[in-house]
């Protein structure tokens, strides 16, 4: 999922459903990733936890935990109309 943080919108822990994964690889080169199921980011560090949000489709947005245990919304720009 390619995503960007827009205006650093935060969500509370109460708005989170379950953890859906974590960043496994940090890379700025997409050709580094040979497997389709690798969770990677060029923004977030390895180990960053990703969460489904209550009543939200993960194709639209997820929550990303930052090092201070705040949760930010990451929008999936691939599917979001501009």
Q: What can you tell me about this protein's structure?
A:
- The chain is mainly beta and about 80 residues long.
- The chain has no helices and seven strands.
- It has strands at about 5-10, 15-20, 25, 40, 50-55, 60-65, 70-75.
- Strands 1-7-6-5-2 form a five-stranded antiparallel sheet, with no helix packed on it. A two-stranded parallel sheet has the order 3-4.
- It is globular, with a radius of gyration of 12 Å.
- The model has no long low-confidence stretch (mean pLDDT about 80).
Secondary structure elements and their pairing?
Blueprint: E1 3-11, E2 16-22, E3 25-26, E4 40-41, E5 49-53, E6 61-65, E7 71-76
Parallel strand pairs: 3-4
Antiparallel strand pairs: 1-7, 2-5, 5-6, 6-7
How would you sum up this structure in a few lines?
The chain is mainly β and 82 residues long. It contains no helices and 7 strands. It has a 5-stranded antiparallel sheet with strand order 1-7-6-5-2, with no helix packed on it. A two-stranded parallel sheet has the order 3-4.
């Amino acid at each position: 999922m390619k995503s960007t943080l827009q205006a650093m919108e935060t969500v509370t822990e109460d708005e989170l459903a379950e953890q859906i994964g974590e960043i496994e690889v940090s890379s700025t080169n997409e050709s580094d990733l040979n497997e389709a199921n690798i969770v990677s980011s060029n923004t977030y560090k390895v180990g960053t936890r990703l969460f489904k949000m209550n009543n939200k489709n993960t194709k639209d947005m997820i929550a990303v935990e930052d090092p201070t245990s705040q949760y930010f919304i990451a929008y999936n720009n691939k599917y979001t109309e501009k």
